[in-house]
């Protein structure tokens, strides 16, 4: 697998005057946090674009190259969060982060202090009147514990709220702080009414709600812990990729070896690897030879022989032999690092449905505050006074609401989906493509190199003359074709390695016809049949071979036909299974190729592709993709059909860019990879089907997350507002809602992807998709063969 030339960069072209930097953010909990950071950083002069990802606790900033990192870090700090610049040597630690440890410590302190408050609530509701109860239930004891919890352990909540106020944004902590302060104030008021001492409720005492404060803060911290543990879990896929690169490398300098950090390697350094070593970075072998296993990187299980001049890929393992290689890509730019970068970028994608959820989250807090006010006013009117019930129910409504569940619904699912896809060799450049792929309607395939191996090999040589032996014919054939630059000639010569090469003179190339040369005083011509003969029997034999999808030409010696030569491009072994799987999913499959009609139709028939568009110029491939995208539904209204393009060459780049989803193999040309959205690292065509399944599963998770987040709020807020839920139980429900969304995303699986049950293929919402001049029906039996021969004349002439 040639992964060395991979240029996995996106399609966005950045000017030299701009830079792109990633940062790790600490303390985010929901979409509102991301919004506050984005607004603050965008105010920094020179910042072009800011993208904050809650699920990965990361931020990407595109800015002028003269913008200082301190300006970005201070902007994040002013929003109430901490940021750390991510360098090129990023690793993914298996140890818990400092922030997670902080949250665990705070949670432990808050829980220990909340337990006595819960005990006090139980004694208070039970009207227990003992010396111990008077201490535990007393306002002084409870306010001390509650104050430590709220203003000490929960201090960061106030910082987040204040930062939100400064940036005119609201977040989950706004509701938590507002609810906790309301409970705090009401408890002080009730304590004053009771003379600041414990009075049993059956004796007219008033209930204190300090335990509500402890419960709110404790469970909010617990929710943060679960969310961060989930983030740690979802970085496992990134960790596995990062682990492919060894931390140390053996540098060869002046004939001596020394161990250095892999990140210290420079271009043109010489590195030594021995059996069992992981290759630290990409390079070209300068001495030695051996066998290298690239299964960790490419999925290819067989060891690959490597010799001087061969490329060696980072992350592969040396099975046999010792080698030295020259570094062609530093650690931050090698194959594995590029894959890692793409996976991280994809995890930060924004789906349309996710943007809708974020917009709702942004308005959620003001709506909840309004609902709490309505609850307070409603109960006050009902009780004909500003009652404690009105205040408590309003507090419950504030606490029960959870915008975090909505904010986490999309990013957590994207992070898990793209991360797990990378584990099976499917690299999404952008998480947005998950939504497109989940709604895929059609896949357009290039033929050569995509559905076929892309390597022509000698199929057979049919001898037409008894004057010359088979060996003589091969020698003359190889002698002439060795002088030709044509790809078919190159493939033919490569197929005859054991045939000696004779000397030639007077080599001549005849455009669109063939070539000729003099060998051993004989004039040898090799070219298309129409140029070399009019014999009907020979023409019929050539036509029969062409209908089998083969490239055919003739050879003459002194104008005597002596052989018919055919070459073929083998169909990839997993191509038919892929087409069957996509058709069974109801996805339309189409072949678009510049190859001749007969060859294209033969390949399509073998694979089960129902639509073939042959002889299409490069310039018209993108137009064809556009014709598939622009549909009209049954009501006559225009609709957009999601179309994917699968290709591997320069001639596919425009179509790959035009398609909603461009898909390439990792062995494709750099320009094709740069134009694509999804890269199949294992070069397995069935990964196209697997990527569709992963996208559909991820999309279902997102829909499920958003649905349950809505249902939760629709049910819980009314229950809290009507007094069914006490504030402390509202806090429990609030914490569980966020945790449930994260856990649901973590349940996403990419294993056990089976072939689909057969469905009736969906029709695209367009009846004007098929350019009549190119469309060839799959069913050869129903075609007028005479017309087909007329259409194929040009194909025969261009076959050589």
From TrEMBL:
<feature type="transmembrane region" description="Helical">
    <location>
        <begin position="143"/>
        <end position="165"/>
    </location>
</feature>
<dbReference type="GO" id="GO:0005507">
    <property type="term" value="F:copper ion binding"/>
</dbReference>
<keyword id="KW-0187">Copper transport</keyword>
<dbReference type="InterPro" id="IPR006121">
    <property type="entry name" value="HMA_dom"/>
</dbReference>
<dbReference type="Pfam" id="PF00403">
    <property type="entry name" value="HMA"/>
</dbReference>
<dbReference type="InterPro" id="IPR059000">
    <property type="entry name" value="ATPase_P-type_domA"/>
</dbReference>
<dbReference type="InterPro" id="IPR036163">
    <property type="entry name" value="HMA_dom_sf"/>
</dbReference>
<dbReference type="InterPro" id="IPR017969">
    <property type="entry name" value="Heavy-metal-associated_CS"/>
</dbReference>
<dbReference type="GO" id="GO:0016887">
    <property type="term" value="F:ATP hydrolysis activity"/>
</dbReference>
<dbReference type="InterPro" id="IPR036412">
    <property type="entry name" value="HAD-like_sf"/>
</dbReference>
<keyword id="KW-0479">Metal-binding</keyword>
<keyword id="KW-0406">Ion transport</keyword>
<keyword id="KW-0186">Copper</keyword>
<keyword id="KW-1003">Cell membrane</keyword>
<feature type="region of interest" description="Disordered">
    <location>
        <begin position="1"/>
        <end position="20"/>
    </location>
</feature>
<comment type="function">
    <text>Involved in copper transport.</text>
</comment>
<keyword id="KW-1133">Transmembrane helix</keyword>
<feature type="transmembrane region" description="Helical">
    <location>
        <begin position="172"/>
        <end position="189"/>
    </location>
</feature>
<dbReference type="InterPro" id="IPR001757">
    <property type="entry name" value="P_typ_ATPase"/>
</dbReference>
<dbReference type="GO" id="GO:0043682">
    <property type="term" value="F:P-type divalent copper transporter activity"/>
</dbReference>
<comment type="similarity">
    <text>Belongs to the cation transport ATPase (P-type) (TC 3.A.3) family. Type IB subfamily.</text>
</comment>
<keyword id="KW-0067">ATP-binding</keyword>
<keyword id="KW-0472">Membrane</keyword>
<feature type="transmembrane region" description="Helical">
    <location>
        <begin position="360"/>
        <end position="379"/>
    </location>
</feature>
<feature type="transmembrane region" description="Helical">
    <location>
        <begin position="706"/>
        <end position="725"/>
    </location>
</feature>
<dbReference type="InterPro" id="IPR023299">
    <property type="entry name" value="ATPase_P-typ_cyto_dom_N"/>
</dbReference>
<dbReference type="InterPro" id="IPR008250">
    <property type="entry name" value="ATPase_P-typ_transduc_dom_A_sf"/>
</dbReference>
<dbReference type="InterPro" id="IPR023298">
    <property type="entry name" value="ATPase_P-typ_TM_dom_sf"/>
</dbReference>
<keyword id="KW-1278">Translocase</keyword>
<feature type="transmembrane region" description="Helical">
    <location>
        <begin position="391"/>
        <end position="410"/>
    </location>
</feature>
<keyword id="KW-0813">Transport</keyword>
<protein>
    <recommendedName>
        <fullName>Probable copper-transporting ATPase SynA</fullName>
    </recommendedName>
</protein>
<dbReference type="InterPro" id="IPR027256">
    <property type="entry name" value="P-typ_ATPase_IB"/>
</dbReference>
<dbReference type="Pfam" id="PF00702">
    <property type="entry name" value="Hydrolase"/>
</dbReference>
<dbReference type="InterPro" id="IPR018303">
    <property type="entry name" value="ATPase_P-typ_P_site"/>
</dbReference>
<feature type="compositionally biased region" description="Basic and acidic residues">
    <location>
        <begin position="10"/>
        <end position="20"/>
    </location>
</feature>
<dbReference type="GO" id="GO:0005524">
    <property type="term" value="F:ATP binding"/>
</dbReference>
<feature type="transmembrane region" description="Helical">
    <location>
        <begin position="104"/>
        <end position="123"/>
    </location>
</feature>
<feature type="domain" description="HMA">
    <location>
        <begin position="19"/>
        <end position="84"/>
    </location>
</feature>
<dbReference type="GO" id="GO:0055070">
    <property type="term" value="P:copper ion homeostasis"/>
</dbReference>
<dbReference type="InterPro" id="IPR023214">
    <property type="entry name" value="HAD_sf"/>
</dbReference>
<feature type="transmembrane region" description="Helical">
    <location>
        <begin position="209"/>
        <end position="230"/>
    </location>
</feature>
């Amino acid at each position: 697998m040639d992964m060395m030339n991979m240029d996995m960069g996106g399609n966005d072209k950045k000017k030299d005057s701009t830079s792109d930097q990633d940062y790790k953010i600490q303390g985010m909990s929901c979409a509102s946090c991301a919004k506050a950071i984005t607004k603050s950083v965008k105010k920094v002069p020179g910042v072009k674009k800011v993208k904050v990802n809650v699920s990965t606790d990361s931020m990407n900033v595109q800015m002028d190259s003269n913008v200082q990192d301190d300006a970005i870090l201070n902007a994040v700090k002013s929003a109430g969060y901490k940021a750390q610049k991510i360098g090129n040597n990023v690793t993914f630690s298996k140890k818990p982060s400092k922030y997670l440890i902080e949250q665990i410590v705070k949670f432990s302190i808050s829980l220990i202090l909340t337990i006595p408050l819960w005990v006090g609530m139980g004694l208070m509701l039970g009207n227990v009147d003992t010396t111990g109860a008077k201490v535990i239930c007393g306002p002084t004891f409870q306010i001390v514990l509650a104050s430590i919890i709220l203003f000490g352990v929960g201090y960061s909540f106030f910082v987040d709220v204040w930062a939100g106020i400064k940036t005119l944004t609201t977040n989950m902590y706004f509701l938590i702080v507002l609810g906790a302060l309301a409970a705090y104030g009401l408890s002080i008021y009730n304590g004053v009414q009771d003379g600041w001492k414990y009075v049993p409720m059956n004796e007219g005492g008033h209930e204190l709600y300090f335990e509500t404060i402890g419960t709110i803060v404790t469970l909010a911290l617990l929710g943060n812990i679960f969310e961060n543990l989930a983030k740690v879990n979802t970085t496992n896929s990134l960790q596995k990729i990062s682990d492919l690169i060894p931390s140390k490398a053996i540098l060869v300098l002046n004939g001596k070896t020394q161990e250095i950090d892999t990140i210290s390697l420079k271009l043109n350094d010489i590195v030594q690897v021995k059996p069992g070593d992981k290759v630290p970075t990409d390079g070209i072998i300068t001495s030695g030879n051996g066998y290298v296993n690239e299964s960790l990187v490419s999925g290819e299980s067989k060891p690959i022989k490597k010799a001087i001049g061969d490329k060696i890929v980072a992350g592969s393992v040396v099975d046999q032999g010792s080698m030295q290689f020259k570094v062609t890509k530093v650690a931050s730019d090698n194959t594995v690092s590029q894959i890692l970068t793409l996976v991280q970028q994809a995890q930060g994608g924004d789906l349309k449905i996710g943007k809708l959820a974020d917009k709702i989250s942004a308005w959620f807090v003001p709506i909840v505050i309004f609902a709490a006010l309505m609850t307070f006013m409603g109960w006050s009117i009902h009780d004909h006074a500003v009652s404690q019930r009105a205040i408590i129910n309003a507090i419950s409504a504030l606490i029960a609401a959870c915008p975090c569940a909505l904010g986490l619904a999309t990013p957590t699912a994207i992070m898990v989906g793209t991360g797990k896809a990378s584990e099976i060799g499917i690299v999404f450049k952008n998480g947005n493509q998950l939504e497109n792929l989940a709604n895929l309607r059609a896949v357009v395939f290039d033929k050569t190199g995509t559905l076929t191996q892309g390597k022509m090999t000698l199929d057979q040589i049919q001898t037409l003359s008894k004057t010359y032996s088979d060996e003589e014919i091969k020698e003359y054939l190889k002698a002439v074709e060795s002088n030709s630059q044509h790809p078919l000639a190159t493939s033919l010569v490569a197929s005859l390695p054991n045939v000696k090469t004779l000397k030639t003179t007077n080599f001549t190339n005849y455009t669109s016809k063939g070539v000729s040369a003099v060998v051993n005083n004989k004039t040898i011509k090799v070219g298309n049949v129409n140029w070399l003969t009019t014999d009907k029997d020979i023409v019929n034999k050539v036509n029969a071979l062409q209908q089998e999808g083969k490239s055919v030409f003739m050879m003459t010696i002194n104008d005597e036909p002596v052989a018919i030569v055919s070459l073929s491009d083998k169909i990839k072994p997993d191509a038919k299974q892929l087409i069957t799987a996509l058709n069974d999913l109801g996805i339309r499959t189409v072949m678009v190729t510049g190859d001749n009609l007969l060859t294209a139709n033969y390949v399509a028939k073998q694979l089960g592709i129902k639509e073939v568009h042959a002889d299409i110029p490069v310039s018209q491939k993108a137009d064809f993709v556009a014709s598939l995208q622009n549909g009209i539904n049954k009501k006559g209204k225009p609709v957009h059909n999601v179309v994917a393009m699968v290709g591997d060459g320069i001639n596919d780049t425009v179509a790959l860019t035009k398609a909603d989803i461009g898909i390439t193999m990792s062995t494709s040309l750099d320009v094709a990879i740069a134009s694509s959205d999804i890269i199949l690292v294992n070069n397995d065509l069935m990964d196209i089907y697997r990527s569709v399944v992963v996208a559909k599963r991820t999309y279902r998770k997102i829909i499920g997350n958003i649905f349950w987040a809505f249902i939760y709020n629709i049910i819980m807020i009314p229950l809290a507002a009507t007094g069914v839920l006490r504030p402390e139980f509202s806090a429990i429900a609030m914490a569980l809602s966020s945790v449930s969304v994260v856990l649901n995303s973590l349940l996403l699986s990419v294993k056990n992807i089976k072939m689909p049950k057969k469905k009736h293929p969906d029709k695209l919402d367009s009846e004007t998709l098929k350019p009549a001049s190119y469309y060839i029906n799959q069913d050869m039996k129903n075609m007028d063969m005479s017309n087909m021969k007329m259409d194929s004349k040009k194909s025969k002439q261009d076959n050589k």
